[in-house]
Amino acid sequence: MWDAGNVSCKVGILTHPIVQEDIESIFKVYSGEAIMRRKFNPNRRIRDNVDSEMRERLNQRVVYGGNPEHKRNPGDFGLSPTAAPRPDKTLCDAVSIFSRGEAERLLKSGIVKGLVSEQVRGDYPQNVWAVTDAGDPLEAQLENQNLGIYHGYPMSETDPFREIVLERWRKS
Prior knowledge:
- The protein is α+β, with helices and mostly antiparallel strands.
- 27% of the residues lie in helices and 19% in strands.
- The chain is built from 4 helices and 8 strands; from the N terminus they run ββααβαβββββα.
- The chain has helices at 20-31, 52-61, 100-112, 161-171; strands at residues 8-11, 14-17, 63-64, 120-121, 124-125, 127-131, 137-144, 149-154.
- Strands 3-8-7-6 form a 4-stranded mixed sheet.
- The longest helix has 13 residues, at 100-112.
- The chain is globular and about 35 Å long.
- The model is unreliable at 1-37 (pLDDT under 50).
């Protein structure tokens, strides 16, 4: 750990003090340490009652597209590795998801168990949550509301919503 002291940086014509957290984050990026995301959407809510008709309709229509920012090795996802990986992104590789088929199976299992968000875009929930066979919670995000295409990722261990997902998964 090191002291930020009175370090500041210029942002436009204003001088903005750099806080200790900022300097530590920058240090971690350049030293190769992984940075876990510190802020999560506090407005996420799992819908209370998802009827069987909605589950069936969504399960027939959703598609897993993927996102190269969450893959170290693109496997059969048909994705090109990202040129500038972001250290705050969680990787599917870390929870042994290496195929599009497995990712789509997990997406659909979240729908079957009713772990879909209250927030909807078009005909699709903004988020779907699932849990791997090894107990790792996942979050999928709608990326195309016209076609029902999602991309997903493991939930960060620092995300407080992960415990809600695990609890609802166990009860469903």
